Amino acid sequence: MVDKNKAGQLPVVAVVGRPNVGKSTLFNRLIGRRRAIVSDEPGVTRDRKEGEALLRGHRVRLIDTAGLEEAAPETLFGRMRASSEQGIAQADLVLFCVDARSGIAPADAHFANWLRRQNRPVLLVANKAEGRAGVQGAYDAYSLGLGTPLAVSAEHGEGMADLMSVIAEHLPKHDTVEEEEAVKPLRMAIIGRPNAGKSTLLNALLGEERMITGPEAGLTRDAVSAWLEDENGPIEVVDTAGMRKRARVKAGLESVSVSASIEAMKMAEVVVLVLDADRGIDEQDLQIARLIEREGRACVLALNKWDMVTDRQATRRAISDRIEISLAQMRGIPVVTFSALTGEGVRRLLPTVRRASEVWNARVGTSDLNRWFEDALEKHQPPLVDGRRLKLRYITQVKSRPPTFVVFGTRAEQVPDSYKRYLVNGLRETFHLPGTPIRLQLRGSRNPFVQQDGK
Length: 455
Prior knowledge:
The chain folds into 3 domains: 7-175, Rossmann fold, CATH 3.40.50.300; 186-360, Rossmann fold, CATH 3.40.50; 366-444, GMP Synthetase, Chain A, domain 3, CATH 3.30.300.20. The protein has helices spanning 23-31, 76-90, 106-116, 131-140, 160-170, 198-206, 253-267, 283-294, 312-326, 349-360, 366-379, 417-430; strands at 2-3, 12-16, 49-55, 58-64, 93-99, 122-127, 150-151, 186-192, 224-230, 233-239, 270-276, 298-304, 335-337, 384-385, 388-389, 391-399, 404-410, 439-444. The chain has a 7-stranded mixed beta sheet with strand order 1-9-10-8-11-12-13, with helices on both faces. Strand 16 and strand 17 (404-410) form a beta hairpin. It contains 12 helices and 18 strands. Helix content is 32%, strand content 22%. It comes from Saccharibacter floricola DSM 15669.
């Protein structure tokens, strides 16, 4: 399993600089949409975030990095800097961002000297250059010795057209990529409580320390995507911030992080719900699973830290029983056990995700469906409502992703929930649709002999 760039050999442009100089705002402006969380609080970006941008007719892969700071390697800021350095090592072009409003800091000069030794083309971007103070700060950036500063205001969009033109001029000569019929990637989101091991899992899948990890809970603050490929094609994986109980979520940055996690889940085809197997499954995990079902996503339950579990059989049975009782609408949900830290069992995850995607995309033939429907009605007739038997005539599948069926019949909309569950369970068992949400709609037919609107 190796990292796979979405667009093949696209040129890579990395945005770097010290904290709170506006790197994420610049990143969002260049790709044309909000992909990175922006906040006045310094150090919000902790992991490298990627996105594709079209700059003057040239497609590039942009990397937003954590702020460059001097720190010991074992500290959080040291790990963030190491991640940024990896992004720079991949780059064909580096945008070194400084804050023109606050002026050139000693850290800017330090990292400018460091960048010169990295043997990478560098463009100096003086951000927040709006107004008289910003213009003066942009001139001060000449002192860094990295050439002419490009004065921009990423927040207000000033100077962005010129910046895009200069970036295009500095791209490598092989930047014209032939448009090919791209294979659509499978979109997969990794969701769960804080400190369940989501980022460690993504690192294990990629085979590199892409995400910042550590004992501190809540390290991931934004939804961060990465690309990998298995034998069946490309997969876009999104790692998300941990989702705590709503009552514990603080306003501001954490609330935005949770919103980004939910948005990533809505965009995914398969959601991997990561649990700390040593702690078991609790109500918050079930709430997240119910949210996945409500959004109609396929789900794989990932029991991480399996190497820490002493009685594996009892743990597996307890989790399975809780799911069977509390998540009846996703009966048969696939479960994978592994240790993201050691890598044991991680290779079983992607094949399981692929199978879950196939079920989510499944379509059942109309003839097979109606043969089953007739048999189901014969085995267990629809109930009486107001002393009259409901007449259900036929069923059809109207869509997949998730599998959605419509039952037609006289007063079909009056079918009670218990009978709907009977039909859904029969569909799941007969047509092998484990673990995926199944939508069942009922549409009654109007009796033409009944007067409408009092006529």
